[in-house]
From TrEMBL:
Lineage summary: Bacteria, Pseudomonadati, Bacteroidota, Cytophagia, Cytophagales
Domain of life: Bacteria
Location of the UspA domain: 145-270
Stored Pfam families: Usp
Protein's name according to its UniProt entry: UspA domain-containing protein
UniProt record similarity statement: Belongs to the universal stress protein A family.
Length: 291
């Protein structure tokens, strides 16, 4: 059973905040969540001189906290125990990473605006530094989650994400599917038949799936699809498959191969994060990686 002891929700005082708080309520209604921390950091040094001249020594942190409490009261209610945390630090990423460690946060909910409205630079920094799994909620996403896609590359990281997704799907009655994107050694064409190469590649991958299912019996009944990259990146193929299959959640495992200063975020997850997605993206670290 999946339970979240503590969860952090990052708010930025924009229109997406109400959606994030309401989505958090939806999560608490479906999963066991111990405590939720609604957080915002005020970069005081970014306040203009005009602001200081007009408002003087106003208790900005108190005003922001009151505003967040209003949103939480309206959109979240008493769905779970919660606390509002407002800080005034120059570096948002560092203070949020510190909160994750201090309160042993297992999952952070992060909103994402479309590329027209935002560069997503802060989100990218947070994904590099936060020592916990992250659920990215695009402003165009809905709360309905019924169909889940988990791309895997047979690494321990992706297998962890798959097993976690299977647990989640069983718990909530979701439809789970697996995707694997493979590539052919095109430098050897036309020395070998492309058709023969495809057949051989899929034969090898199916053998790896059979071995994986034998090792982890709980995923033996999960359907999988093999897709050839064929001139596109793995992330692009995943995106095309998402649009075709009408999924509601994408789950990706993250690797932790960079112990200093934090964990590792790159490659396929980074490319997908930078796309304008319309469904939530769950980026999963295993407990072993975080430790």
């Amino acid at each position: 059973m999946i339970a979240i002891d503590s969860m952090m929700v990052c708010l930025d005082l924009s229109d997406i905040d109400e959606k994030l708080v309401a989505f958090t309520r939806s999560i608490c209604g479906r999963l066991q969540v111990g405590k939720v921390y609604f957080v915002h950091n005020i970069k005081v040094y970014e306040l203009s001189e005009d602001f200081r001249e007009w408002f003087g020594d106003v208790d900005l942190a108190g005003e922001v906290e009151g505003n967040i409490h209003d949103i939480v009261s309206e959109q979240f209610g008493n769905a779970a125990d919660y606390e509002v945390l407002v800080s005034e630090e120059p570096n948002t990423e560092v203070i949020l990473a510190d909160l994750v460690k201090r309160y042993k946060v297992k999952l952070t909910l992060l909103g994402k605006k479309t590329s027209i409205k935002s560069t997503g630079a802060l989100g990218t920094k947070l994904l590099h530094i936060l020592p916990c799994s992250v659920l990215v909620f695009p402003e165009t996403a809905t709360f309905k989650i019924e169909k889940v896609l988990v791309p895997i590359d047979f690494s321990d990281t992706s297998v962890h994400a798959l097993r976690l997704s299977k647990n989640l799907s069983d718990q909530l009655g979701l439809q789970l599917e697996i995707l694997h994107v493979y590539r052919l050694p095109t430098q050897y064409f036309p020395l070998i038949s492309e058709e023969k190469a495809v057949r051989k590649a899929e034969e090898i991958v199916k053998g790896r799936f059979a071995a994986l299912q034998k090792k982890h019996l709980e995923i033996s009944g999960v359907p999988y699809t093999l897709v050839r990259a064929a001139g596109k990146s793995t992330a692009e193929r995943i995106r095309l498959h998402l649009d075709k299959g009408k999924y509601d959640l994408l789950v990706l495992g993250l690797k932790g191969n960079n112990p200093l200063p934090s964990l590792s975020f790159g490659g396929v997850p980074k490319e997908i994060y930078n796309m304008d997605m319309h469904i939530p993206l769950w980026l999963v670290y295993s407990e072993e990686v975080i430790r």
